[in-house]
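Q: My labmate handed me this sequence with no annotations at all. I'd like to see what the chain might look like in three dimensions before we decide whether it's worth expressing. Could you predict it?
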Amino acid sequence: MSEAAAGTRTAYVHGVALWAPRLPGWSVAAEVLRGAAPAPDQPASRPAPALLAPTERRRAPDTVAIALEVAARACENAGADPQQLASVFACTEGDLAISDYMSETLARTPTLISPTRFHNSVHNAAAGYWSIGTGSVQPYTALTAHRYTFGAGLLEALVQAEASGRPVLLVAYDIEARGPLATMATSRGILGAGVVVSPEPGAQQCALMRWRTARGTGATAALPRNAQLVAGNAMEACLPFFEAIAMARPRTVRIGISPSMSLDIDLEFAAGHA
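A: Here is what I predict for the chain of 274 residues:
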């Protein structure tokens, strides 16, 4: 048995979600990614986080809105109870709009910092809102790994699922960079992705994954027509994985998890899955 084969693990995709202004929800995104329909001409408005009370919903920043949207839709797609799932929240840059606001306010009028916006500035804000909104007491992890954030988040979810023997929710998201920070931490638009992975098959499963870590770089690229729909967003590395699921054909996807390592996933689908 080869070293790669010996290190291969098996997991199942039970539910997925994807949202970007030109890919507003998985039902639309799947058709667009597989080439069965064009992307909408008009970008969609930011989703409203229905889990939150009206006052909190109005105050929720883009990071919270997009994270809660894809988290809820992934659970719905998987037929999973959000209260029963551990979760991994992966965000490359955090809330860059709030970071820009706080930096400028601290430099000019520090006593006028908004307590609400300060509260929303922490990297795990979306995960906290998710726990509150769903009433979940399951553990969550919030992480970042620069340009490798999606791969690191997916690996974390897969490892947790195997170690616990239970499904795990991954929520990956990034938003538009603002102000001087945009020259250092570049990101354009809004993009959120959600996936429920499980170590066991289930009635809602949409794909089987044989995964392993490997030395080397060279991540799988999305098709140019799809890549341009999320180009420039700090989470764009997630797209080839969701593109492969939308196409529902056997495929190996390589996702970077560090400057010298990757997560290699062989995706398999049941006959007739679409």
